[in-house]
Design a protein that fits this description.
seven-stranded parallel β-sheet, UDP-galactose 4-epimerase, domain 1, Rossmann fold, 9 helices, about 300 residues, two-stranded parallel sheet, 2 domains, alpha/beta
């Protein structure tokens, strides 16, 4: 089975590529830059914003699409429209032309808005531009789903953490990496809220394992699946965890919260109707290991 992973140099794409490399699947990686694609003899390069640039090797069975605008790029509406929405539609059109059987799109659970308990049947209520771009793309993929004989699957993913260098170099604005960077550089972690908001987190390797399991499924025409975990710490808990690990290496870090924020946050529960989600203890252990690895990498920079 031949699988093309777009955005293979991104945080999620890279983790998926590594996981596929441990299987007998035939991997084709994608990047927008020629020099990076040339590092891999099975690599292709194109910018999906331009449909005439898109080219696939023969007999691709499945595309896993991770190359979309992140939280930083979403600030540029033109880039969002051309990269995430138009770029995905161009990719889908070419996939149909090349008779690709299966298409998997990495979306976000942010499309549910601020709901505290959700599953795939929950009403979507996208509040942010980041969530809206993914929801718009999901709807377009649903329209195109009948043209893929093994189906289209939308994976709505929660917050991803990682110990890879990519987390420091490309996604240092995300929790928990941002806490590590701030803690080591300024000796302060300043939260804009009281920190009691709970989020679901999943390790990039756990996510990649789930994605690879999905690749080989022959699905119904269109499916949406939440990819989350039972690990739902508060932001304050993670900030204090980071501070304690930095303190262990001899640097004291102050964690401050917004004392004017009186909002209370109920417990969070994200469920999936299609699969068992990774448990709390496993993901908590992986977070500890990731924090320790990232702290050492940041210190050595």
């Amino acid at each position: 089975m031949k699988v093309l992973v777009t955005g293979s140099n991104g945080l999620i794409g890279n983790a998926i590529v590594k996981r596929i490399g441990e299987t007998n699947l035939d991997l084709i990686t994608h990047t927008r830059k020629k020099e990076k694609a040339m590092q891999d003899t099975q690599g292709v390069f194109f910018d999906s914003r331009f449909i005439d640039q898109i080219y696939f090797p023969k007999d691709i069975d499945c595309i896993v699409h991770t190359a979309t605008s992140n939280e930083k790029k979403i600030q540029d509406i033109n880039l969002t429209l051309s990269s995430t929405i138009l770029g995905t539609l161009n990719l889908v059109q070419k996939a149909i032309e090349f008779d690709v059987k299966r298409f998997i799109y990495i979306s976000t659970t942010q499309v549910y808005g601020f709901a505290q308990e959700v599953d795939e049947d929950s009403i979507v209520d996208a509040k942010t531009n980041y969530a809206l771009q993914h929801l718009a793309t999901e709807k377009a993929l649903q329209l195109c789903a009948p043209y893929f004989s093994a189906g289209v699957t939308i994976l709505r993913v929660v917050n991803v953490f990682s110990q890879s260098e990519i987390a420091l170099n490309q996604r240092s604005n995300l929790v928990p990496t941002c806490f590590i960077v701030d803690g080591l550089r300024t000796k302060r972690i300043n939260l804009k809220t009281n920190g009691n908001q709970r989020k679901s987190f999943i390790h990039d390797e756990s996510l990649a394992k789930i994605v690879v399991e999905e690749i080989t499924k022959n699905e119904k025409v269109f499916k949406i699946c939440n990819v989350a975990s039972q690990f739902t710490p508060s932001i304050l808990e993670i900030a204090n965890m980071v501070a304690s690990k930095i303190k262990d290496i001899g640097k004291h870090v102050i964690v401050s919260t917004n004392l004017m924020d009186f909002e209370e946050y109920p417990s969070l529960k994200i469920k999936s109707l299609y699969r068992d989600l990774p448990n709390y203890e496993e993901q908590e252990m992986l977070l500890h290991k990731s924090l320790e690895a990232l702290i050492q990498k940041e210190i050595s920079k």
